[in-house]
Structure formats: structure tokens, C-alpha cells
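Side project, low priority. Logging it here so it doesn't get lost.
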Amino acid sequence: MEARLNMAHIQPAAYKALNVLDQFMLASSIDPLHREMIKIRASQINGCAYCISHHTASARKLGETEQRIYLMSAWREAGDIFTEEERLLLDMTEQVTLVHKAGLKDETYDKVLEKFGKEQTAQIIMGIITINAWNRVGVSLNMHPVL
């Protein structure tokens, strides 16, 4: 599959708008490694090879281990490899990414709200929405990982 059009060149204003969301997320109070975990898990679900490659590299730079990266797609079966906070983030990421299945369950929302508070919960939701938008750009345009 060949890469398709370059969104940044064809629709620079739209591309810039997504970048503004990224800048918002960088300034958020979400732990940088948690941000990358959200991006990796959503990208795995959406099948965006470009984003998986990019965000696993970013997670490694932040100190994430290969083992935990490999287990992220099977986090429920990984025992105590992931903390309670991380499991909540991964669960919420899956539910928002797969919104067509059942949406964000009240139980998950309540647990995230209790653990992270209103401000950070809102930031987490925006982070999940943002990476899902980028995944749709990447997959729609056949973007390939840069090694």
C-alpha cells in the first residue's frame, strides 16, 4: 500500500487544528508515560502502524520497558504488570475508542473520576479523542512507520 495524500500540505488548517490538540495534551497534567500508553493502546485498537511505531518509541524514551509495551494489548491478562491507574487508563481508552460498542461505562467513568479528579479526567478524555483522530488520519492515508 502506498501512502496517500499528505494532509499537512493539502489541508494545513485542519492539520494545524489537530496539532493544537496535541499541544493542549502536552501541557496537561497527565503523566507523560500515561499519555503515551493511551496513544499506544488506541493505536493498537485502530490498527495505526504509524502511530504505534511513533508512540512506542516515545514511551521507550520515557523509560517504558519492551515487556510492558508488548503486554499493553493484553493488559487484562498481564496480572500486576500495570498499576491500578494504568489499568483504569487502558480500560477507559478502550471504551472511548470502541464507543460504538457500549460507550464509556458509568463504572469506569466513576473510577477514573475518583482516581484522577474532574480536571484530569477531562484531559484524559480529550487525549483519547485526539489520538483517535490522528489514528483515523494515519489509517485513512496509509501512513507507514518511519524506522
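Brief comment: Residues 11-140 form a domain with the AhpD-like fold (CATH 1.20.1290.10).
Revisit when time allows.
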